[in-house]
Queue: 2 jobs
Job 1
Amino acid sequence: MPVPPITLKQVEGKLKMFNGKPDKDQYDIRFKGSLLDQIRDLVNLIPKSYSTKGKLSIMPKLLYKFLFGGIKMEGSFRDRINIIKALSATPDEEATVMYLQPPMFHLAAYALFILNWLISGATIVLPESDRFDVGETIELMDKNNCTWTFFVPTQWKWIVEYLEKEKPDLRLNSMEVAFSGAALLRAKIKKKILHYFPNTLLLDVFGQTEMAPAASVKIDGEASTVRDRSVGVTVPNIEVKITDDEGNELPEEEIGEILYRGPNVMKGYYGDEDKTSKTIDDDGWLHSGDLGFKKNGELYTVERKKECINTGGEKVFPLEVEEIIIEHPAVRDVCVIGVPNETWGHTVRAVIIKKEDKDVNEQEIMDYCKDKMAGYKKPRSVVFVDKFPISPVGKVLRQKIRDKWGQP
């Protein structure tokens, strides 16, 4: 049930809640009815400890500083409304059980999940390991009958591979909502997730921190709705357009840079006006750095603009080459990069992790690609490695791969 307008404002070093506007410069923020009582408990919490079961008994340090550390709440609407919008997405049922894996300092964990579950009185299950342990993850989700979860694509890939190999008959039937974000989740992995989590809605969230953070969401409840590279429809109140290098808007199915405009676009990069002006233009459009296109009302992503490989004047998007190579029965994972070349500018190289029980050589990979893509897109070299450098969030670090294996 809606409650009267509530305004949060810091007054004389203390957080105050107003039933209405304390002055004309403040904005009303509407909360769910349950928030009014529970926020009183929230602001009295102090950092304690993590628990792998039961309710979470910690308030992140960042939240503590935000509430009590002298950070002013006065200012523009945009400065603080995005956190409030995230809070308003709170699950209503205390029976909700969230398995939370992302690092606690990331926006996905802090704003989208931790605060929401604290406010609703739901349960958060946290891993005991300080690193991602796929076996422990599956055991905890199964044991605690988790209903919500979030992983990045690399982690989802490890999860379905583990289930295929170690527990092919296990189905995590309690899971109702599963999120993916931070990178594109391949259609092949999505279908496997829906196989092992048969009762879940899979939400592939696309965006970036500068969008606070979601721009679009693709929702799949069964394999038949999964589409390669689709990141779904934009979230409410967001405008999206695709432009060429000169800023001209492109028609459907033509690839260009994705631009966003809306109330959740960041104000700017702190202390860096030059970078801000290059990212957000005079009309308020945020230049995402992602390449994509529109089709039938959905947004599709192709690649980061800086990852595009220019070979002999032709553009090669690593993802489209990777999607073909990953289907080879001996390939566990692949990252396609550009290698400097005096004649072509760059040539395409595939950096591959082989499956443990499979063997394949460079020529076999090249032959596999021969009739499946245009000649300029085919890898001119192949490097086999044991593992990829991974960020703490679980993202493949493409730049480090280029630095290590991208020399001629």
Note: The chain is about 25% helix and 25% strand.
Job 2
Amino acid sequence: MIWLGSVLLLSASALLLWLNRPAAHWPGAAAARFAAALITALYALLAPWPASELTTSQLLLQQLSLYAALPLLLSVAAATAFGYDWSRMIWGRVLLGWCVVFELCRRNDVLAACLQLEILAGLLITLLPLMINRRVIYSALLCSTGWLILVAGVWLQPAWLSPLIILTTALLLIFINPAQRQQTTR
């Protein structure tokens, strides 16, 4: 099961990497999505290996993916939904800020609550196009349903819900978000 989740996450990350690869004019949002996809791709590559030498690296990349890359992707989604076009330098600082938030949450032992808030933020960010445009966008409704299911899953914490499944689902939901889709396609 872990191999399947890892392959799915790697595929979603590879798609995000390809769509946001460096170009002649590389917007800051694309660079931020590229960095987040690179972090999750590295985690997807290391996750299925049971070697004890890799345990620390696996944990570090898992937590970076959940508590830095995912919030960065959500921040990009929120900024693009509101029409902000920030530079790569600003997005680098945003990533650094999310790393600081992660470390503070880790030291205070509130990582589970942080993940719940991230998933809830994903739901709210998905609803932004509906609130801004004041019209029904069916892909946003579909995406919102997916976020609601993910919110319920993270709150109930079933044994089968691994970080690989959470990240894969979140990446795919961010990708099918109507506001994001307009920004990532070339």
Note: Residues 126 and 144 are 6 Å apart (CA to CA).
